[in-house]
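PROTEIN DESIGN WORKSHEET
SECTION A - STRUCTURE
LENGTH: 109
TOKENS:
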């Protein structure tokens, strides 16, 4: 289930390759080649590193993967688990990871 949900990364990679071939190399931020997160519109060198790291984690493909994992978890659990509980079970570890990663980026900047 997680492997199939992670195929969104393949689509993201293909789109990134297309963008890299179409844009001027001087204008590309390799961390945000696709502008599908708020961090793509922020200055990576200015401002808070915590907010920048948090903004780059709020990505369309991340949300799509989270949704697919939650749907798969709900389908695997059947009537024992509601969809809201499945979403909560996926979002909470992701949120802890993102906040921890952002805190480390803020501390070591």
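SECTION B - SEQUENCE
RESIDUE ASSIGNMENT:
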């Amino acid at each position: 289930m997680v492997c199939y949900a992670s195929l969104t990364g393949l689509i993201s990679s293909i789109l990134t390759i297309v963008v890299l071939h179409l844009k001027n190399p001087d204008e590309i931020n390799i961390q945000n080649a696709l502008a599908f997160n708020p961090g793509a519109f922020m200055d990576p060198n200015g401002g808070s590193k915590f907010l920048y790291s948090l903004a780059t984690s709020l990505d369309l493909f991340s949300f799509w993967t989270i949704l697919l994992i939650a749907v798969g978890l709900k389908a695997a659990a059947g009537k024992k688990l509601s969809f809201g509980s499945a979403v909560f079970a996926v979002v909470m570890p992701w949120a802890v990871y993102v906040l921890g990663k952002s805190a480390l980026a803020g501390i070591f900047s």
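SECTION C - NOTES
The chain is about 65% helix and 0% strand.
The mean pLDDT is 92.
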